[in-house]
Amino acid sequence: MSTRIDPEISPDAGLAAADQAVLEIEDVDIVYRTSGGPLHTVRDVSLRIARGESYGLVGESGSGKTTLARGAVRFLPSNGSVTKGRVRLSGTDLLGASQNEMRKLWGARIGMVHQDPSAAVNPAMRVGNQLDEMGRTHLGMSKAQARVKSLEMLNRVGMPDPEAVVERYAHQLSGGMLQRVLIASALTTDPELLIMDEPTTALDVTTEAVILDLVQELLGSVRHAVLFITHNLGVVARVCDTVGVMYAGEVVEEGPVKTVFKQPLHPYTVGLLGAVPRLTAGKADLELVAIPGFIPRPDALPPGCIFAPRCPMVIDECRAARPQLVDVGPGQRSSCIRWVDVPEEAERPRPVRDTSGESFSGYGRELLEVRDLKKYFKGRGAGKGRSAAVKAVDGISARVTEGFTLGIVGESGCGKTTFIRCVSGLEEPTAGEVLLQGNKLAPSVTDRPYDALKKIQMVFQNPDVSLNPQRTVGDIIARPVQQLGAVPKAEVPQRVAELLQAVHLPQAYAARLPQELSGGEKQRVAIARAFAAEPALVICDEPISSLDVSVQASLLNLLAELQRSAGTSYVFVSHDLAAVRHISDWIAVVYLGRLWEVGPTARIFEPPLHPYTEALLSAIPIADPEIERERVRLTGSVPSAVNIPSGCRFHTRCPRKIGDICEREEPPWRDGKKDHSICCHIPLAELAASQRHALDGMYGSADAVGSAAPAPADTGVGDAEGSSTGSDTGAEVGPDTGAEAGSGRGGS
Amino acid sequence: MLRYLLRRLGLIILTVLAASLIIFAITQFLPGDVARLIVGQFATEQAVENVRVELGLDKPIHIQYLNWLGGFVTGDWGQSLTSRVPVRPLVFDRLWNSSWLAFLALLFYVPLGIFLGVLAALRRDKPSDSVITAFGMTFAGIPEFVTGLVLISVFAFGFKWLPANSSIAPGATFWEALPQLILPAITVSLVSLGYITRMTRASTVKVMDADYTRAAYLKGLPRYQVLLKHVLRNSLLPTVTVIFMGIGWLIGGLIVTEQVFGYPGLGRLIVGAVQKQDLPLIQASSMVVVTVFAISNLIADLLYVVLNPRIRLQ
Amino acid sequence: MDQEQPPPITKPSRFKRAADVWGRVRRHPPTVIGLAIVVFFLLMAVFGPVIAPYKFSDQIATARLQGPSWEHWFGTDQFGRDVMSRLLWGARDIFLVAGFGTALAVLAGATLGLISGYAGRWVDEGVMRFLDVLLSLPPLLLAMVLLGSVGPSRFNIIIVVGVLYVPMVARVVRSVVLDIKTREFVEAAKLRGERGSYIMSREILPNALPALAVESSMRFSYAIFLVASLGFLGLGVQPPAPDWGLMVNEARSWFDQAPWMLFFPAGAIAFLIVGVGFLSDGMRRILWPTGVSE
Fold first, then answer.
1. ipTM summary value
2. Which of A131, A172, A630, C56 could form a disulfide with A150 if both were Cys (CB 3.0 to 4.6 A apart)?
């Protein structure tokens, strides 16, 4: 145990060789000294990672996963320290090592890849010089040798044109390229331990997929031990062998990825898996399983099991004593004393929504119509009359009918946010019009009458900045009630109370300031504010993406519930296809300021798909390690909206590009079944044929849509939903930019 | 890049023009009649009127402004009302003296300020940081006339090491004048020293917290290498700007310091001119100061662009 | 407008914040020192003339240039005036002149910055270019030339301090407004049809106040610096006023005979400015930790 293990011994020993542990963490406690007293951020954590093993550490924000990793490699802020336990790297004691000894280990035997690649690269130094530092410091190389090594490493991580890249500065490279640079840098010394701390969180889903492919490939070829930190269960399922689930500073469950995902034996793991929206089902079919409450602060831990206050299976014994991790299966450990009783997936109560008792009539009337909306921004630093316009939105038309949700998906920078800001009037569109119930709306929000304002409200992305920090929750909700709702002053408190109740917040919260609320609670206040004056349309701009998974689920449920009871329409914008899938009746896919595919939700998830939609779907990491999916990957990043590619704007990245025609001509709109339309040069039948097998198992479980593969597209969920979203009642979206788009659709 | 340079240059010229308008406008409020001052108390009305016409003071105000500006640009800066000497050589002579002092001060406080700022940042929240920060703030808060007088009483009257009066003789060489320059140079430096120390500390602390600095440490680079290549390269960038922007402070400090030490610089010239309400002298020397200030701001801008790859390579 | 909301639990919450602020002040010695100094001088400004043994202009012909004694704690000057009494009277002067000057700059600057930042476009462009021109003149030079022209009365000094510091305050407020303006609670206010004046005064301004408070305190220390320097140059308040800067200037000629004439006012000036500076820095740490200085 105490002797250093020679890395050359049996290089093929797999993860089974437990005595080959590269990283051993035993009983570690990490404490931060703060002005409010010590914070025990990590408690009694033990884990070991073997050679060639990839260990995924998952947890929500505040679970202590990053602190654990930093503490293990002795890189804590000055007020943090490891107060207990042992950490060994291939036998070398890390906690006893001096700063100088650690410095020799960092980089050489421990590689690190950080969360935000654009911040982790020095902006004032050429990328190549930063890479060379590794070779020069740790491998004793000369400048020239180090450069050769750097180029070799860049080649290995699949960097296009490494010779050019080494001369660049950080701001000249995209996030995906910078993350490749950082991975190359970390791997230069072939370290025993590679720590990746949320390496794809800051990236777009399509870039994330490419980087994860790279990580997977590298892990296959190099026998490092990898500690992979993430909040995303799908990512763990894709790249890890073992998973450890952290909650409030403790590991609550651990085991082989395949086992844990299939049969989790801790209620928290069960909860996390249940909270993720599926690509197979929407709000009509099931409610997400939210975990009530929130993660306790390390200075206010409950007695006994730390998860007890939020646990659906809690019994009195849980609160009595702190449980230990116990072996519950081959390689699997859980800290739940009732692990035997954790139900298997089939037995788990799936909260399928009972729709029989509800009857809301009023669907079908058109609420919002957007005609050929365009928004160009003036280019920066143009000068000399060379006004380069940024075409953020370049001709989007859409319709929303009462009581329905239109989901808009696309990567960051595709124009989806600009589009909804134009609809709400926060930006004035360059061209096009917005009609509400048939009446044309003024382009700017300042010119719209109260009556129109009342009907369109928004829920914003980041609840930390969408609530005025100086106002109490009561004030924040009361103001729109009074301003738009025309409620008599005396009745305002009553109405505020109703709204708080509707978003499931206690009445006492009216007196709180936003800073006294958790992120999810703040977003509930923001939702209550949006609903204050009984709007007809609520525009949700990435409303859940800044929140933790378990909170996301409860907010999606809340939105669905409010829609059912009030008949409100939503425009729901997100980069998260699963969330959009869950909440939307209709979906529009946006890329570079245009729509490429529109249709009822179920249709978007089965062939034929637009190649871009196909790539988006294929990129989503799914929380099921059993799935092997066909990979459709996009190369490069979204082109600048200043120089939009000719012909089909997607041709520069399209994996199904058919030839010159894509570069020359704008593609036509092609109409499929039930108001499903795709804008592509490839005929729908051809697309569908080539995509059938590719989508097998795409969605994680074979029961619903998976069956659509061989059968005609009319079965499965599509049918179930078809009854409620009949062709003349749903929201309809279309580009209306060319004659061909208008001709194909009768409808409203 | 060239276009940027030209644009900045144009902007500077516009700014100086606008400042000239302000100076001209303010000095119109000066009490007293310039023509009367020139010909003296006992001259006839006619004589005053003649001078008035000669100086163009009978013309409308905007013509007067244009005449004055034209004169300034072509080098005709007029005559001092009190000492009856041409203004231009006088101003340049004093500007030369002041720049010696300024140069010496810069040489003292820039390196020292950067050193102390970086040191404080490296020892963040330790006693040495607190001491440096407290001293920096104290220096930045004590007016030059207080520090100057304290220095005089200690080093001139107390130890008798250095002269209290710095009215250097005309034609003295730099080395001859040096002993007389030391105390004023230190005096004028202290405020800026505190300021530079503080700004350098702030920017260095920020860079030390940056992800890329952490990444550099975790690459296992030696501490000095992280510091030189990763931290200072980024943290001194704003400091360069701060140094040149701080020239405005330096000018203010020079005005007071020169007064304390009786140093024959531009600042003292201006104080005297304002006290004696010597209109041409006030106008010309103010314009010179404004131009110097504008040029230093221009240099600050350009250096920032040149040193910052993010902007340079756009 | 929103007082009809019964806020019973709001008050404890705000109290808690105040207590929190005091807790943080207490843990930072420089801030405590700064606060103590400022309070000391403030008391001096309020009660100084009352407790001063003599009037600032009282000349005791028999006691010229006397060193500190029980009779005259800080000695007397060349006219036999009691230095301590003059200091006590002068404290009020410097607080009033620098204080009103700062208040003027803060009021005008905050208004300009708020409007300029919120309105944007040509309003912003115009206001900022104008302020840039004012900034192109070194402050002390501008103050001297202005005062030389309009004459150095107290009122004029206040106006000059105000004019001088408007651009700095306006810039800081504007940058804060530009930041707050894009926050989504402002957009939510627009979406419910609030007027520009409401958004500026009720949504943006309260959030800009911490920054404004820090900036004001810093401006105040600069204002004292400037007023004292002007006094020293003889361009501030004229004799026989007990202006501290002026006292230092007068004392220079008597330095070898009566150094106390110089040390006490010079020390008072230095202490006051440094005290305000420490306090201002402490306020920045507590109220506006993210803000950039200058």
1. 0.85
2. A131
Residue of A nearest to C196 (CA): A446
From the candidates B205, B218, B240, which should be mutated to test the interface with A, based on the most A CB atoms within 10 A?
A: B218
Binary contact (C191, A426; C-beta < 8 A): yes
Q: How many CA atoms lie within 13 A of A61 on its CB side?
A: 11
CA distance C250 to A641: 68
Average pLDDT over residues B17-31: 85
Closest CA to B263 of B145, B138, B114, B128: B145
* pLDDT confidence of residue A316: 87
A364-437+536-748 belongs to which CATH class?
alpha beta
A468/C6 touch (CB, cutoff 8 Å), yes or no: no
Inter-CA distances, A142 with A148, A387, B98, B228, Å? 10, 47, 50, 19
Which residue from C138, C249, C262 is facing B252, i.e. has the nearest CB? C138
Report the pLDDT value the prediction gives residue A726, as an integer from 0 to 100.
34
What end-to-end distance do the CA atoms of chain B give, in Å? 9
Q: Which stretches of chain A sit within 8 Å of chain C by CB?
A: 35, 424-426, 445-446, 448, 450, 453, 456-458, 460-462, 465-472, 474-476, 478-480, 483-484, 489, 492-493, 496, 508, 510-513, 516, 526, 529, 533
Chains touching chain C at 3 or more Cβ pairs under 8 angstroms? A, B
pTM: 0.82
- Does the distance separating the beta carbons of A450 and C193 come in below 8 Å? yes
DSSP C101-112: HHHHHHHHHHHH
| Edge-to-edge strand list for the sheet holding A733-734 | A439-440, A431-436, A366-378, A389-401, A733-734
Domains plus CATH for chain B?
Answer: 2-74 (no CATH), 87-313 (1.10.3720.10)
Out of A108, A169, A381, closest to residue B220 by CB: A108
- B220, B222, B229 member nearest A105 (Cβ): B220
The per-residue pLDDT for B68 is 86
Report yes or no: B142 and C225 within 8 Å, Cβ to Cβ.
Answer: no
C7 contacts A466? CB cut-off 8 A: no
Angle at B7 between CA B6 and CA B9, to 5 degrees: 65
DSSP state of C204: I
Q: How many CB pairs under 8 A join B and C?
A: 138
The C-alpha angle with vertex A19 and arms to A17 and A20, in degrees rounded to 5, equals 70
Does C273 sit within 8 Å of B142, measured CB to CB?
A: yes
Looking at residue A234, what is its pLDDT?
86
Q: Which of A75, A120, A169 sits opposite B309 (nearest CB)?
A: A169
Tell if the CB–CB gap between A124 and B237 is shorter than 8 Å: yes
